[in-house]
Design goal:
It is a single chain. The protein has about 425 residues and is of the alpha+beta class. The chain has 2 domains: about 270 residues, Electron Transport, Fmn-binding Protein, Chain A (Pnp Oxidase, Chain A), CATH 2.30.110; about 130 residues, UbiD C-terminal domain-like (3-Layer(aba) Sandwich), CATH 3.40.1670.10. The chain has 11 helices and 20 strands. The strands form 4 sheets. Strands 4, 5, 6, 7, 8, 9, 10, 13 and 14 form a 9-stranded antiparallel β-sheet that branches. The protein has a 5-stranded mixed β-sheet with strand order 16-17-18-20-19, with helices on both faces. Helix 5 packs antiparallel against helix 6 and helix 8 runs antiparallel to helix 9. The two termini are about 40 Å apart. The structure holds flavin mononucleotide (FMN). Flavin mononucleotide binds next to strand 7, helix 4 and helix 7.
Length: about 425
């Protein structure tokens, strides 16, 4: 299964030409809940662009064929029981050019004005671990630097480690436009021997078709595949707008040289606007199963944990628990802060509050919190490098924990939300 299988139903198709320089991003962020297909990208008559595919938990759930509240369970099951891939099949993409001037074939958007740069933020890099043979998949922003070259942001995780253990340039495939299950798997960090392709295959019930290109296994239905090499040479990356929607610092990062470019006929080039909903969901959601497991060790009655979009799906978390004793909420909050070191604020709520509903969480804070008793601050902790409010001299910040659960010594019914009877059973359209 590929990207096309989810471009059905509530997708909005724009037929008027759109400029990849700012205009495409401007339309994408107008209403991020709308999956958009740009049928006409100025300068690229053969190519469509697609965005906002995974911009809400509901859309991700529907792509995975589960209920919204069950995404974390689906991810947990897939990472604990990855599914072996079927034999490689023929690719649905076709060879287009060797050593290409990439921007001649695919639109590479610019998103933000102050420091204009062309970036692909939707590229999944596939590389083989020289020791385990496992294929690693991970997203890496790619700044276009003319002709065949991109500068790739390489944080010190698995791909970085593979590169360190490889002699000479590292051969990679860059895959753009795949099923959301592959995107979620690529954004998941597991042990180095975990195959993200097999995780995606488990999420898709065994329906992930793969193929082999330049010795690497990639999704056969990918819309765009580039192969090339990560070279030893470094150049300046950025400035780039990261998850916090503020400008990241400029670093020296490795150059990737593209040696061959492949496209599906009538390709749908996948666009992720940096710092917006899709970027946030893809970063945050794969963290939730791990945070859930760690909180569960401390408070077994934890119900759900959500990294909230308002907090960049990275800096703020909400934990829903079934509270058994006073103190459970603070323990659950401390465990969540420890489980995800980038989390700066955690709110702990009772199980009657949906942690993914920011209005409901604020209502719990408004009606169940007294700041002198229920708010804890932890000073000089290490947080996310993306938080511009931290003390950059010491690299530390203050974390906080809000216990928004009902106190044990109070009448629980005093805090229950009054409901209108029958609200779930009546439908306006039936009365029109
Ligand atoms: C849209 C998006 C963009 C990302 N950009 C980068 C990036 O530029 N550099 C990076 O190292 N990680 C980036 N990440 C995070 C990694 O892809 C992610 O942490 C992945 O799980 C790392 O895999 P690994 O631990 O197997 O190396 C990005 C994630 C997403 C969802």
């Amino acid at each position: 299964m590929g990207l096309r299988s989810v471009l059905t139903g509530a997708t909005t198709t724009l037929t008027e030409p759109v400029d990849p320089r700012f205009e495409l991003a401007a339309l994408a962020v107008q209403d991020e809940s709308l999956p958009l297909v740009f049928e006409s990208v100025a300068g690229y008559p053969e190519v469509s662009a697609v965005t906002n595919v995974v911009s809400s938990r509901d859309r991700i759930a529907s792509a995975l064929g589960v209920e919204s509240g069950d995404i974390v369970t689906a991810l947990t099951n897939a990472t604990t029981a990855p599914r072996e891939l079927s034999a490689p099949m023929d690719a649905m993409f076709e060879h287009v050019a060797d050593s290409p001037t990439v921007a001649d074939y695919v639109p590479i958007p610019t998103y933000y004005a102050e420091h204009e740069r062309q970036y692909i933020a939707s590229g999944i890099v596939v590389a083989q671990d020289p020791d385990t043979g496992v294929h690693n998949l991970s997203f890496h922003r790619l700044m276009y630097d003319g002709d065949t070259d991109f500068v790739m942001r390489l944080v010190e995780r698995h791909l970085h480690d593979i590169r360190t253990r490889t002699d000479g340039p590292l051969g990679v495939a860059i895959v753009v436009g795949v099923h959301p299950a592959v995107e979620l798997a690529a954004a998941t960090s597991g042990s180095p021997d975990m195959s993200e392709l097999e995780v995606a295959n488990a999420l898709l019930d065994g329906d992930l078709a793969t193929t082999t290109i330049d010795g690497l296994t990639v999704p056969a239905e990918a819309e765009l595949v580039m192969t090339g090499q990560i070279r030893a040479e470094t150049r300046s990356d950025g400035p780039f707008v990261d998850l916090s929607r503020t400008w990241d610092t400029v670093r020296q990062q490795p150059v990737v040289e593209i040696t061959s470019l492949h496209l599906r006929p009538d390709p749908n080039v996948r666009v992720v606007v940096p710092g917006r909903r899709e970027h946030a969901h893809l970063m945050g959601l794969p963290q939730e199963p791990r945070i859930h497991r760690i909180v569960e060790n401390t408070v077994p009655t934890v119900q759900e944990i959500v990294l909230t979009p308002g907090g960049c799906s990275w800096l703020h978390g909400v934990v829903a628990i079934e509270k058994r004793t006073e103190g459970d909420a603070k323990n659950a909050g401390l465990a969540a802060l420890a489980a995800h070191p980038s989390m700066k604020r955690v709110v702990v709520v009772d199980e009657d509050i949906d942690p993914a509903d920011s209005d409901a969480v604020e209502w719990a804070i408004a009606t169940r919190v007294q700041a002198d008793e229920d708010v804890e601050t932890i000073e000089k902790a290490k947080g996310s490098s993306l938080d511009p409010s931290q003390d950059f001299e010491t690299g530390t910040l203050t974390k906080w924990l809000i216990d928004a659960t009902v106190p044990e010594n109070r009448e629980q019914s005093d805090f229950a939300e009054a409901t209108v009877p029958g609200v779930e059973n009546v439908h306006l359209e039936e009365y029109q």
